[in-house]
Design a protein that fits this description.
This protein has 217 residues and is α/β, with parallel strands linked by helices. It is built from ten helices and nine strands. The protein has helices at residues 3-13, 24-36, 51-61, 75-83, 96-104, 116-124, 141-148, 167-173, 187-191, 195-213; strands spanning 15-17, 41-45, 66-70, 88-90, 108-110, 112-113, 130-132, 156-159, 177-180. The strands form two sheets. It has a five-stranded parallel sheet. Strand 2 (41-45), helix 3 and strand 3 (66-70) form a beta-alpha-beta unit. The protein is globular.
Length: 217
């Protein structure tokens, strides 16, 4: 899949699930359950044990899935993730070297930012999206709306504390997509290996985003 196609699918689906789990086996299980639920996009945080290998396994087992690397902290690890097959790179904060790494290798990149200055720096560096993190803790949808006013052309991804109660509000406020972790991938569902639980939540979040984008339908 080309960079343009990856970027378009992230925006179309509107959800980037973060597999912030405790083992590679858990991450593989959750990713495949999400794909079955209509979200063939996953971020593998580098806090997952063997995260680079998890990316490699997911790409090999699910070539149609968009697999990305998250919680990146340096360009060297970013390169290793891309070698393993990652299609996008995302980080908690803004590191220009990670952005440059992604640009040089044709990957979608969305660094984390919080302040207006960080948003400007990240987008000027060449980011495809800018991830606002942590969103809920600094005002939630109202903060996204405040950023959209001076930056109407910067595509924002809201991350941090997004829930079923707030996901629609984030989209209405102007987020192009949202990042979701445990509120979508319930740890108990993973522990009990209940893919139906994860699929149901995936369907629910997709429906909430659709309704927020088409309020009159």
């Amino acid at each position: 899949m080309t960079k343009t196609e990856v970027r378009a699918l992230i925006e179309d689906i509107g959800i980037v699930p973060s597999l912030r789990l405790y083992s590679g086996e858990d991450a593989l299980f959750a990713a495949e359950a999400l794909a079955a639920g209509g979200i063939p996009i996953v971020e593998v945080p580098m806090t997952v044990p063997g995260g680079v290998d998890v990316i490699r396994q997911l790409v090999l087992r699910n070539p149609e899935m968009i697999v990305g690397a998250g919680t990146l902290y340096d360009a060297e690890v970013a390169h290793r993730c891309l070698d393993a097959g990652a299609s996008f790179l995302t980080s908690t904060g803004f590191d220009p070297e990670i952005v440059v790494c992604g640009l040089k290798r044709g990957a979608v990149v969305f660094p984390g930012a919080l302040t207006p200055t960080e948003v400007m720096r990240a987008f000027k560096a060449g980011a495809d999206f800018v991830k606002i993190f942590p969103c809920a803790q600094v005002g939630g949808p109202s903060y996204v709306r405040a950023l959209r006013a001076p930056f109407p052309d910067i595509p924002l991804i809201a991350s941090g504390g997004v829930s079923q109660q707030t996901v629609g509000d984030f989209i209405i406020a102007g987020a192009r997509a949202v990042g979701i972790g445990a509120n979508l991938i319930q740890p108990e569902a993973v522990r009990r290996r209940e893919p139906g639980w994860i699929r149901e939540l995936a369907h629910r979040y997709l429906d909430l985003i659709k309704r927020a984008r088409q309020p009159d339908v």
